[in-house]
Design goal:
By secondary structure, this protein is α/β, with parallel strands linked by helices. It has helices at 3-16, 19-26, 30-44, 60-84, 100-117, 170-175, 225-233, 247-252, 281-293, and strands at residues 49-51, 56-58, 92-98, 121-127, 141-146, 154-162, 164-168, 190-193, 201-206, 209-214, 221-222, 238-242, 256-257, 263-264, 267-274. Keywords: DNA-binding, Transcription, Transcription regulation.
Length: 296
């Protein structure tokens, strides 16, 4: 038995949730995955995974073993990185997840500039608005917008504050009711970004006062920021969005800022990464670059 290979296979099976997914991820056959798990269980003289034809469940011993070997494998990886990255120039691949709309408009230009300055670094970008599991998807870094991050299993650095505003098109406002304060939103069609940390719970502040609006189901709910803006431009309703997304439209009058006096609950852009990636020089330098880039 190649023990290092076996424990690596075991880790990926647990993290990906199936033998088939691990086989695809590691470019091995499903039979090879099963062989490694069986040999590891025989060596340890205890079952690590209970499996049927449809499902698999990690045993208590398997969970304990996974926690130990994950740390060992991460330490081995970090030891390799400390040597590989000890030279004066960086090389290798960084796998990054970024949101679709903000990624195209703001983040991708920053990544292109980073690559220009570090020509031996390769970047693999996954553009998706959903929050991907960092470990399961083999991500080095994910750039995410939202409120304060409280996940203790990851590390994070704030890159940029994203003040949000209420806005709507002149066509919508011409036929809509008054909107003098956030409480009036109950009488409006509110366009909802479904992946927000609080899609139907909007909080506003003014002069120390707080107004909370719990929205009724609107007629348009979407999981993409660009599609949300297009709906607002089409006159379908009111949206709450980062000011940066609609700065041009506000300037030319295609959208109207409806909350100049009320401050919406703050969101920010974060770089998040698994704890063990903190030892990677290329990941640290990539995030340091983004921090400085967004200070401009």
């Amino acid at each position: 038995m190649d023990k290092l290979r076996a424990i690596t296979v075991f880790r990926r099976v647990i993290e990906l949730g199936s033998f088939k997914a691990a086989a695809e991820d590691m470019a091995l056959s499903k039979a090879a995955i099963s062989k490694n798990i069986n040999e590891l269980e025989d060596y340890l003289e205890t079952p690590l995974i209970n499996r049927t034809t449809r499902k698999m469940h990690i045993t208590e011993s398997g969970q304990l073993y996974y926690e130990h070997i994950r740390t060992i494998l991460d330490d081995l990886s970090n030891a390799d990185l400390s040597i590989i990255e000890s030279s004066n120039h960086l090389r290798g691949t960084i796998k990054v997840s970024i949101p679709m709309t903000f990624g195209v408009l703001q983040i991708n230009p920053a990544i292109c500039e980073f690559m220009r300055l570090n020509p031996e670094i390769s970047i693999e970008i996954i553009m998706v608005d959903e929050y991907l599991d960092l470990v399961k998807n083999g991500l080095d870094v994910a750039l995410r917008g939202g409120g304060n991050l409280k996940n203790s299993t990851i590390k994070s650095r704030k890159l940029l504050d994203l003040p949000r505003i209420l806005c709507a098109s002149p066509d919508y406002l011409e036929h809509a009711g008054k909107l003098d304060s956030p409480s009036d939103l109950h009488d409006h069609n509110c366009l909802v970004y479904s992946l927000s940390s609080s899609p139907r719970h909007w909080v506003f502040r003014k002069d120390g006062k707080v107004q909370v609006v719990d929205l009724s189901p609107g007629t348009y709910v979407v999981n993409n920021g660009l599609a949300l803006k297009q709906a607002a431009l089409a006159g379908l309703g009111v949206m709450l969005t980062p000011e940066l997304f609609v700065r041009r439209e506000i300037k030319v009058g295609e959208l109207i800022n409806l909350s100049p006096d009320w401050q919406a609950e703050s969101h920010s852009l974060y770089a998040v990464y698994p704890y063990h990636k903190e030892q990677s020089q290329k990941v640290r330098i990539f995030i340091d670059f983004l921090v400085e880039y967004f200070k401009k």
